[in-house]
Design goal:
With 197 residues, this protein is mostly helical. The chain has ten helices and no strands.
Length: 197
Amino acid sequence: MEMLFLSMIFGYLLGAISSSYIAGKVATGVDIREHGSGNAGATNTLRVLGLKLALIVLIADILKGVLAIAFAHLVTSDSDWAMALAGLAAIVGHNWPVYFGFRGGKGVATTIGVLVTLSFLPAIYAGLVAIALLLITRYVSLAALVFVILVPIFQIAMHSSGPYIWVSIIIVLMTFWRHRSNITRLRQGIEHRIFTR
């Protein structure tokens, strides 16, 4: 139990390292949260700072989820609950980072890292659908929402571990909550598209 809590704390503190904030400050002196959508994530980094920094942020944020689970695996002898909750804690840390006044991103990249690490094939299948949808619509938010919804569906169909399924369902709820403004804009037809002027 102690190692489970340790892995969750590590996951949160790792997730709370805001890659986009650091990239903006180091590269240009910009606080990414004061520009564009105000979101501290890879998509807003792309809009404000360009593709190169956005890719760096994307990879760093994905790795936060992967490393949080790897640490839990190491210290808890492969406990499904520990790994799932450590991954969830990393997403929470990204969304509400203690180092940055609890003003973080929406957790999509870190969620990708977590779900691909916990449930590789379900996440890959869901990711392929989401990528296709992104290429067709150019709505990052819509692709992200579809991705998180599909992962637990594929997990159930493929008989994934119970803790992974339950945490994936929590991730769905959290992702929808963080994207509530995007959902409103999608319904109104005014959501921002990627790679458009």
